[in-house]
Structure to design on (83 residues):
């Protein structure tokens, strides 16, 4: 299994391929769960890990990231009751 870099200071909050947070924090040396999306710069690069398959999922394209940010920044509008 792929692991978080041993020299990482702090934690990583993984998400799935749909961009939904997995609700966990991973620290240095933790095993990355299957289906979690983690930036490759945060993963262990030892020979043992290098031969394994990276976690499933692809990062968002710049267009998808912009759309997700736009949706996140837009407040939900609730219909006002009719008078």
């Amino acid at each position: 299994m792929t692991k978080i870099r041993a020299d990482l200071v702090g934690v990583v909050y993984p998400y799935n391929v749909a961009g939904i947070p997995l609700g966990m924090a991973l620290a240095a040396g933790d095993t990355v769960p299957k289906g979690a999306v983690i930036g490759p710069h945060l993963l262990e690069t030892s020979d043992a890990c290098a031969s394994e398959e990276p976690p499933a999922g692809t990062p968002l394209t710049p267009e998808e990231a912009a759309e997700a940010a736009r949706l996140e920044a837009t407040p939900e509008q609730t219909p006002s009751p009719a008078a």
